[in-house]
Amino acid sequence: MKSLTIKELMVPLSEYATVPVGSTLFDAIQALEKAQEEFDRTKYRHRAILILDHDKRVIGKLTQMDVLWALEPRGKDLKDIDELNRFGFSHQFVRALKKERRMESEPLKALCTKAAQLKVEDFMQATTEGECVDEETSLDMAIHQLVLGNHLALLVTRGKDIVGILRMTDVFAAVFHTMKECELNP
Question: Which end of the chain is more exposed for a tag (fewer CB within 10 A), N or C?
Fold first, then answer.
């Protein structure tokens, strides 16, 4: 049975959706769509966009959830609604107020039009040391890091540079195939 390495499972940065800092959410979504079209169809699709600084170094990622979060209404009245929890109002009551506020907001098309112009850095998640893994790290240690950190992906490093992304879907597929091989060839 062949032992897989992180280098073999990762998606190289060159194949992943990236945009420079200062890009709009629309630019990011276009980059994601382009990367998905060009990516090997036998693999799982990308679910995030990596944000690059002016030196083309990864400084954060924008997930599909982050883009959807950009559509949510914001403002003082929503913060005031959140404060109601502190005064003993039930979660159901607070959720109902938020739902009512959401229904009073603009239609989806208008929300999308506004969100498309927002900057990625306002919604991206900055990279943290806990979500980076050296390309020479063993796969079992990467699995440990994914599980304990509750990450969907890890950024793969070579020295100080991020060179790829190790996605949980690819790790899961490798684990599944290893289990299958072990069952068929005990």
Answer: C
- Are 44 and 93 found together in one domain? no
User: Same domain for 87 and 156?
Assistant: no
Q: Which domain holds residue 28?
A: 6-68+118-184
> Measured between alpha carbons, how far is 121 from 144 in angstroms, rounded to an integer?
29
* 1 part of a folded domain: no
Complete DSSP assignment for 23-88 = -BHHHHHHHHHHHHHHS-TTSPPP-EEEEE-TTS-EEEEEEHHHHHHTTS--SHHHHHHHHGGGGT
Q: Please indicate, yes or no, if residue 110 is contained in any of the structural domains.
A: yes
Helix and strand totals (H; E) in the chain: 8, 8
Total number of domains constituting the chain:
2
pLDDT tens over the chain, length 186 residues? 457 788 888 989 988 899 999 999 999 999 998 888 887 655 667 789 999 999 999 999 999 899 988 887 665 555 566 667 777 778 788 778 777 766 666 778 888 898 899 999 999 999 888 899 999 998 989 999 999 999 999 999 999 899 999 999 889 988 998 888 888 877
| pTM of the predicted model as reported, rounded to 2 decimal places | 0.76
